[in-house]
Specification:
By secondary structure, the protein is of the alpha/beta class. It contains eight helices and eleven strands. The strands form two sheets. An eight-stranded mixed β-sheet has the order 6-3-8-2-9-1-11-10, sandwiched between helices. Helix 3 packs across helix 5 and helix 5 (about 190-205) packs parallel to helix 8.
Amino acid sequence: MGTIVAGLASSHAFAFMEPGQWDEFREHNRRMLEQRSGVLPPVQDAVHDEDLAANRARYARIRGGLDRLRDVLAQLRPDALIVIGDDQDENFTTANVPQIAVHVGAEFELATPLAQSRARHRVHRELAMSILEQGVREGFDIASLGSFSDDALKSHAHAQVLAHVLPEADIPVVLVFLNAIHHPAIEPSRCEEFGQLLSRVMQGRPAGERVAIYASGGWSHFTAGYPWAAYRGPHTHGAIDTEFDREVLQLLEDGEGRKLAELSDADLLEHGEIELRAWIALVGALGDRPADFIVYEPFHRALMGMAVAAWTPEPAER
C-alpha cells in the first residue's frame, strides 16, 4: 500500500511575484478585462490604502510559507508529486474544457513567462494511469492527456508551483486539472470525492510508495479571467472577500476542512473562491485534520487573498 506523506497548498499567480511587480501586473490584468468587456474597471479604493513597504513585510509571511513547502518536499523526497490546479485557456482552449483531466505523457517542459524555468519534468506515468483507470472504473469522467503541444506546460497554476518547489525537476510529477474558471464548473462535493479517489488509488499502489499532493489556487480574487458572464454578485474587478477567506481559514485551522465540500458552485462563484476546488480535493485526499501550518494575507495591490498551507502526516524526513 502506498502512502500520502504530505499535503501542500498555495495560491499562485501574484503569490509567486515580489510586491514590486504587483502594480504592473495588476494594471495589465485590468486592461485585459477592458479588452474582453469593452469597459475599463475602476481601481479598488483599498489599493490606495496599501504601501509597498507594508506589503513587503506582510508578503514575507507568504514567501516564507512557499519556501517552507519547497523545504518539506526536499526533506521528504516523495516518489511522486501530484499537482492539482486549473487551466486558464493556456493548455486547453474554450472549445475543449474537461472538468477533470490527468496528464499521462512521459515528460514536459515548463513554458510560461510566470514560471522562470525551462526545466523538463518527468511524469510518473504508472501513478497517472492508476488514477485514470481507477477513476474511470469508479465513474469519474476523466480526460487523459498524452502530451501537450510542443510538450510545453503553459498552465501557470501548475508551472509556477513546479518552478518553485521542484527547481531541479528531480521528483516525477502527475498533473491533475480541475476546471474552475469556465462555467459551469465541477461541484465542490465532486472535488472532495476526487480527492478521496486519490486516497483509494494510493491504497492500491505498491508497498512503500510515497506521494505528496499539492493544491494550487485561490483564495478570493476577482480578476480579468473570472467567469463574469455567470456572476451576479456585488463584487467588481480587484475585490477580495476577506470575510469569507477568514471563514475558510478557520475551518482549515480547526481541522474541519471537509465542510468546504458542502459549498456549491454558486457559493464559490459568489465569493471569488472558484479555485478553492483544488484545496477541497486535497482535503478529500487527506481527511479532516488541522493544517500543520497555514498563513493568509489579503493584498488588493495583488488582486487576491493569498494563502499557503501544509499537512504532513509523517515527519518531514526520510
